[in-house]
Records
---
Amino acid sequence: MTATTIPGACGVRIVGSGSAYPERVLSNFDLEKMVDTSNDWIVQRTGIHERRIVNPQTEGTFTLSRDALNKALDNAGMTGSDLDLIILATVTAEMTCPSTACRVADAVGAAPAGAFDLVAACSGFVYAVNVADSMIRSGRYKSIGVIGCDTLSTIVDYEERTVSILFGDSAGSVVMVRDDDPTVGCRYQTLQSDGSMWPSLYIPRRDQEVPAGDENNPVRMGNLRMQGREVYKFAVTKFRDVIRDALEKNNLTIDDVAQFVCHQSNMRIIESAKEKLGLPDEKVHVNIDKFGNCSAGSVGLCFDQVWQAGKIKRGDLIVLVAFGGGLTWASSLWQL
Ligand code: COA
């Protein structure tokens, strides 16, 4: 699905941003003691030096999401009771019922605001931002709290080296409100998927779910499984394609865009897109070295870091880009 702004409709403004991540650091040197890998290999192949992981006794998707949304509300000068709706993008909800969004809504004092979880893996935050923008533009909602959060450390098999080195935990959140200016907000968006490629990134719960050919996958049942090379090829292509598409469809050049806020999947994937498209360093924020790939938490965390650092301001155009399990990919061109 692709969509451009409906003329005459209201606009949407991001009025607050926040993020949260665990204190606990898992470095490459820690991983060297857990699996057959090395700091040099991980840095060279991924650009990751360390990542944050939750203490599962006290932290999880609920606590990080709650904290990120509370910070976004503070940043907006709002309280939970100002929200009509909360959308939480995650593949690591503690429970399928209730949704983690419902518990977050309760914790921030937003009830009876609507609340639901959205599953689009690493594309989740961009999917949720696009859905929220469309719901506000429909005229039915005035203010929505959007959160992207994953705690993949809770479903990573730390006895297996191909997946365990990549992922970290974090949450990013924005508060979006209705604005009278229809040119503000999401000017162009894509939400796309190719379900035929699901076996390249999946979390099986039962033997029946395991696709033919993957029966001997060493990753334990219930944990994230990934065909790294396939995902790499997909990601490197989609990263470029969605940015090119957003610029071309809107007659924009790279110079018109203040920041490209991109999913942090692998440093080599980011570098390849930068090189092929000619994106300057200062327009692509990178935090994968310190946080790893945080799945649905990545883009929200990046957005918060550029927002808090004052690298983006009212009137700027930005592009959000993500891709991941599903397989899914999404982009969002925003006028702040
Ligand atoms: N430490 C040391 N060696 C490792 C290793 C590790 N953690 N993981 C794999 N290897 C080995 C392999 O066994 C292989 O050895 P071989 O040549 O003797 O067979 C070699 O390194 C190369 O493996 P390969 O899987 O081809 O590495 P790669 O360059 O593709 O890097 C990933 C692996 C996972 C880092 C890379 O494929 C990737 O980043 N893919 C995308 C993942 C992603 O973005 N996922 C989320 C999507 S949102």
---
Amino acid sequence: MEKYFAPEIECASRDQLRAWQDERLVKTVHHVYDNVPYYRNLLKEKGIEPGDIKGVEDLHKLPFLTKDDLREAYPTGLLAVPMRDAVRIQSTSGTTGKRVVAFYTQHDIDLWDECCARALTAAGCTKDDVVQVSYGFGLFTGGAGLNGGSHKIGSLTLPMSSGNTDRQIQFMCDLGATILCCTPSYAAYLAESIHERGVRDQIKLKAGIFGAEAWTQEMRHDIEQQLGLKAYDIYGLTEISGPGVAFECSEQTGMHINEDHFIAEIINPKTGEVLPDGEKGELVFTSITKEAFPLLRYRTKDICVIHNEPCSCGRTFRKMSKPMGRSDDMLIVKGVNVFPSQIEAVLINKGYPANYQIIVSREHNSDVLEVNVEMTPEMFSDSLSAISVKEKELIDAMKAMLGIYAKVRLVAPKTIVRSEGKAVRVIDKRNLY
Ligand code: DLL
């Protein structure tokens, strides 16, 4: 039997949902106009007064917001409450160094926790469950979000963070974890490690909540088989609130968008035209219940389809498909957002020519990031040991910029194939979409 965390909301009529969205959108537009000079200027430039927005039908009048706006307004230019009313930040890497910083009031955190509690409940979680949260804790939203959701339900929560696989498996066995929350690639790695250690019969997992990166149906099937659980997808992004923007139910055919908090649109990424349900395009979100960091029409760059057919689970929220790609060049490697421009910035900063190639692959269910960089002719005459010192220097600089290890290989001048059109900077061998 399907369970809901907030049945009166998750199963509300479409008319009721629309009424909530109309009212909350109007309130949010006034809130940002009154409290955020950056927004006020943006709306004034477009000749929009808050009174022009009377409901969702007027949403299309509002300008889009992009990561560039967030970068320009860094760090507090989009903060809509006095700093002393914010209680937390979460953050993600942005292009060339500047990070995206999202602020939360306590009320924002309560609502976010509730979104995650809905996702956990849809995966069958109750107060009697033991929830192992193996997403990273800290600035990344994964750990904090699912941890908060699990607390809200009242389940025993294991705030493991990611890594330290031996300890993960030991706690999973000793405390009888029944729900696992982590990235799908870490789930696959844990499954492999559990089999290697011969402790599969001590595992009590029944469900997994896996997201933050693309994963295929084949991968879902493998993880389900190996860990004996049902694997649920979860979607979110730091800018909008982290995990729980959308979540899967037992039907496993897309993720219900928490539409009482977020209005979703699909647009043509080239023209900005709003597309009807069922058509593929870029996902755009407007948060309508946030106090500290509300975003209007934020372009996620994720390419998706929104479906409005009724769902057998009884929820009335529309469903988004798994992201089918990106409309920018962002890669997600080991759950970390990586832009080729960040890698290029490191190379240029260290005096290398911008002749490089990024290769992403997956070995034993773990992402591998390699960067081949052409040396200048002068460097090429260096001794092998001098070259490996330079490689090490680049590895450290990349780690500082991206937060993850990249295998850097310095190659002879003119060995990276020149393209006659756009340079092929990235070779992604993972076939995730
Ligand atoms: O990844 C938030 C999150 C944490 C979601 C834990 C789910 C679970 P960011 O680091 O800001 O936030 O990355 C956001 O990750 O725009 C998508 O491109 C991608 N992404 C997130 N969830 C999924 C998913 C978190 N289920 C970016 N499938 C988004 C595919 C996903 N891609």
